[in-house]
Design brief:
By secondary structure, the chain is mainly beta. 2% of the residues lie in helices and 37% in strands. The strands form eight sheets. Strands 8-7-10-11-12-13-14 form a seven-stranded antiparallel β-sheet, with no helix packed on it. The protein has a six-stranded mixed β-sheet with strand order 21-22-23-24-25-26, with no helix packed on it. Strands 1-2-5-6-9 form a five-stranded antiparallel β-sheet, with no helix packed on it.
Amino acid sequence: MTTSLKICLATVALCLLAASAAFGQNVAPELNITLGEQRVKFAPTRSFQEMRLEVVNSVGEIVFTHLTTEAEFDWNLRAGNSEALVPGLYRYTLALKFGEDQTRQHTGHFIVEKGQDQVWLTASEGTEVSGTVLSASRSGGRSITGLGSKDDKSVKRDVSGREIVNEKGDDQGNKLTGSTKAVKAALLGTANMVAKFDATGLPANVMNSTITEVGGNVGIGITTPGSILEMVRPGATDVVFRMANGTRAWSVGVSGSGDFWRIRDNTAGAARLTVEGGTGRVGIGTTAPVAMLHATGSAAMGVRGDSTVTNGVGVYGQADTGSDAYGVWGLSNSGYGVVGVTTAVTGVGVWAAGSGNSGTALRIQSGRIQVSGAGLGTGTPVFIHRAIAANIGFNETEIDHLLTNGDPNAILIVTPNFNPGGGAGVLNNHPIGVVYDGSKWRIFNQDAVAMPLNAAFNVLVIKP
């Protein structure tokens, strides 16, 4: 059986006709769909028990339903809540019930165009018609063009009554000829470019977007992407991903104002991490790093490095050239510039090494050397030792300290302290020395004079 579709222009209606070539007789159309001003009228041409219309939007939501036994239904293009349909694509299903077991469905699509007095409609004759027709506007004035299908051989006319021949489509049903070439041209684009719809009018033109897909790689702003995703935007404009979770928004990408890669906290309006392209410097909390790693902020520590492996290094800094080059530089307004802590017995909190015998391992430009908590009898590497009756042996006084006991290789630097903390003191005006007795270190008067009671000494312990 072959089928033909005819446009009824006199009533601006879309009529569906079926012709039987085998018997050579015409069959009256089962349904007339008439496009009017702000409305679409559905009028079956033969008796029926009930007619049901259902309309869904492009995401599958039902926006309108209507059941009637009237001979026709004139729909005002409003949703079930009486509000006008928003511009977009819709699908309609019109079910005609002729008897208990006789139901016929007519389906199609229509487009409500934004800002225009137009509705574009497609319709079919159910299962017996393979082609579809795109109607003219409600108010007329546009040519009626066809969308071909594989077995469709239809006669269509424009608003002036001129016949438009839509030749047989190819296997994909998309070959358009004759007056429909304009439609075909609007569907053509550039190879590998992702298409987009131009919504300036209807039918909407299909155009190139700025997105390209080549060999599984996607490019935005570039036609030859070299990775899974590559984005390019020439000029002084940021190229970033923006992400938000409802509480905070972030952006990651290339800064257009300079040669930088950044992570930016958009909610706070601050750059959190910056990498300079030319120098490779990394800034945390600063957009102008002056070191290979420059961290600044309101936290208690600017940089913290923790190593959990054997012989690991928490923070390692090396300066290869320059008299004023620094491996690690720490600056604090009120706290500590550099802090090193070890939790292992044989660990090292801060390691400083010079270059051979000529390099400088540690240089103090200004300020004091402070040993927190140091004082009389403290367990710090600098402490004050006082000679009392319990530790005096004639011209000697024994040191009982954790850092020196049992270590004959410890290095002790000792000086007399006349009056620790100020006030009255005890004078020991004799040359002194230190000696290890097999378990502990002792301070002794070298001239063999008895050690004065309550004499005090400053002791610095250096471990080799």
